[in-house]
Amino acid sequence: MANEGMDRRTFLKFGGLIAAAGAAMPASQLLVTSGMASSNSTNTSLQYSMTVDLNKCDGCYQYDKKICEQACRDENNVPDLQAYYGEDAKRYTPYWIRVADMQQEVPGAEIDPRPIPLLCVHCTEPPCVHVCPTKASFRREKDGIVLIDEHRCIGCRYCVIACPYRARTIVFRDNPVPRDDQNAKVPAMMLGVATKCTFCAHKDLDAGELPACVEQCPKQALTFGNRDDANTTVAKQVASGDTQVLRANLELKPNVFYLGLSRQQAALDEVLG
Amino acid sequence: MAKYYFSRIEGKSGRYWVTIALLAGLALGWVVASLIRFTQGFYLSGLSTSVTWGGAKVLFVLFVGLSAGSLMISGLAVIFKQKEYKVLGRVAAFNSVLFMVGALSILISDWGRFDRLFLPFYMINPRSMLSLNAFIYSTYLTVGVLYLWAQFKESERWSNVMGTVAVITAVFVHSGTGFIFGIINGRDMYFSSITPLAFVIAALSSGTALAMLILYFTFKYTKREVDMRFFLQLSKIMLGLIIFVFYLVTIEHLTHLYDPEFQAGEKFIMFQNPFFMFVFWIQLYGIGLIIPIFILFNPSTRNKLGWILGASAMHVFGVLGERMLFILPGQVLAQPILPGYTLTSGFQDGVNITYIPHLIEWFQFIGIFGFLALVYMLALKILPLMPTEGVFIKPVHEEVVADEPEAESIGPAEPVAEGA
Question: What is the ipTM of this complex?
Fold first, then answer.
């Protein structure tokens, strides 16, 4: 019986497509285009940082909305989808900053919850940047802000998984607010890509402008500035040794610091009467 | 060595074309669902800001694994010098490429921006496992296609070379896929050095199991004969692999149970969440590991084709569960942003999230199976993948023959070529 082989033409016809997908770039390019140098630089003379004073933050319980959350939404075109589409939209509503209630777990004791603003902590060793397959997530060398190039993001969501602070999400749905009613200085959110806090990088931070949440906090609980400049409030607060970072054990060197995470003496005195 | 002959199936029967039409419908469902999700957004899926990798990622990991098993069967002839397996070489090598195509298809159709398909090839981040995998996967596909070509050309030398290269590449592929998850130190449920190894072994065991099922049904429905001893031999390899999977999965979970940081997650899977309890105890351990091991050990069942195939199907189902445990609990479980505190917020901090795939995802999940089956059935008609005559092997282990005095075979006594 004659064996049915396969001529080259037929093979190419059916195998060509798959082979084309495997036409990998020379491995040398892998080395040349290394992104390690740019993303891991730690010696910036400018490192924007934020401190959150939990002794001052009162959670805005007296208002309908958290002021910092709303300021961020208005400034950065972050839609409150839950407000538009109801309860089901809660699972995919993006937040760049959110005020959570934290309640210390002590067996046998019921400790009152306290508010804590949570946002991207702009790590110096950001895992989101390390895992991004297209370098869409990057740490800006000049000021240490971690940003996303929306035009380079493929929406794989590896960064969302890798972030231990839940600071990132994907854009699940288009912003229902008409573009004309959005802040024209900030691009509209792009569907299907990752999104997160930028420290309001579109503002002229170098000239002293402040992120919207910092600017509008009624209790001045948030402070923003260059931590590499010893004269700034942020640098002094951090240097005081009273600040803490979240999940310090991961050694990601976050740049959002918390004051009063463990209640300070004054606050304790107040509680104890 | 015996010379084997291969042929295409005729594929003229009405039943063949009805099946093709049905599968094409399912594949179209996958394409349409993916496009709708792409244009409208992920809100149509059951995903959330917490569970951002869902069923599509589970299938991706499953398919990558299934690709390995097929390659192993094909590579047996090359690496382990089991010449008899050469007869299955073409179809098994084809399936390994096919499953990899399936894995990449479901992965890419799950991207938020799959229109940027080629970005990972020129915006390379060497620190990112996904970025490296883009090259590892495409190398694997290329090698797989070349291996298949070498077999079509009937070049024994090149078949051996490419088969060896393919098996080596496969180790990178499966370790690389395991590393995607294993290197995430921010999530307790993911971070593990055993993950890549467990991934490789479960890939081989489930891949072998599914390859056996596919080969059996292909031989049966194309009215070709095959010696049952193929399945007997493969089932013994599979048994060894399943025991290894059992061992790796068990030591990983046991180790985690001893670590206070991991305990919450392990308790969540084993004792608290009803869905994951089912997946862990029943789907993975019961159906996926213990019952197949019992079947393949028990003298009264281990040599019966029906039982072997049943055990194979159960094991594939079990490994699907293992893949789910791989991917989902790490996201469903509330992340400990502030250890020692309970968090509550509008962003669902501190809450264990429920993930239930929505309709559009089911279209994608079922559709991708339809797409793969469609390509497989068309390939049988277009490419000379299947051996023309009945497939027999010489007895390798005398005791196997003694166990099985009458070698059972599938199909009619006289080989009928050009079936279906």
Answer: 0.86
Q: In chain B, which residues have their Cβ closer than 8 Å to the Cβ of A11?
A: 149, 152
pLDDT at residue A41 greater than cutoff 80 = no
Residue B420 in any domain: the answer is no
Best mutation target, B6, B44, B49, to test chain A (most A CBs within 10 A): B49
Q: Confidence band (pLDDT; 50, 70, 90) for B84?
A: confident
- Residue A54: how many CA atoms within 13 Å on its side-chain side? 24
**B146: in domain:** yes
Q: Which of A206, A116, A22 is nearest to B338 (CA)?
A: A116
Predicted confidence (pLDDT) per residue in B252-276, tens digit = 888 888 877 778 888 888 999 999 9
Among A21, A23, A98, select the one facing B346 at the smallest CB separation: A98
CB contact under 8 A, A135 and B43: no
Contact B380, B222 (CB under 8 A): yes
Q: Where are the alpha helices (DSSP H) in chain A?
A: 8-21, 27-32, 36-39, 67-76, 81-85, 127-131, 158-162, 212-216, 233-239, 265-272
* Residue at B198 is within a domain: yes
Whether B417 is in a domain gets the answer: no
Name residues 98-157 of chain B within 8 A of A (Cβ).
101, 104, 111-114, 116-117, 119-131, 133-135, 138-142, 145, 148-149, 152-154
Measured distance CA(A100)–CA(A91) in Å, rounded: 16
Q: What is the DSSP letter of A106?
A: B
State whether A250 and B130 contact (CB < 8 Å).
no
Q: CB distance from A95 to chain B under 8 Å?
A: yes
In the numeric block, which tokens belong to residue A31? 């080395």
Which chain A positions have a beta carbon within 8 Å of B47's beta carbon? 92, 170, 172
Q: Which residues of B261-273 are buried (b: 16+ CB within 10 A; e: fewer)?
A: ebeebbebbeeeb
Please give the tally of structural domains in chain B. Answer: 1
**Is there a contact between B129 and A210 (Cβ–Cβ < 8 Å)?**
no
- How far, in Å, are A121, A210, A226, B223 from residue A202 at the CA level? 18, 10, 16, 68
- Domain of residue B98, residue span: 6-410
Q: Which domains are assigned to chain A?
A: 36-103+111-272 (3.30.70.20)
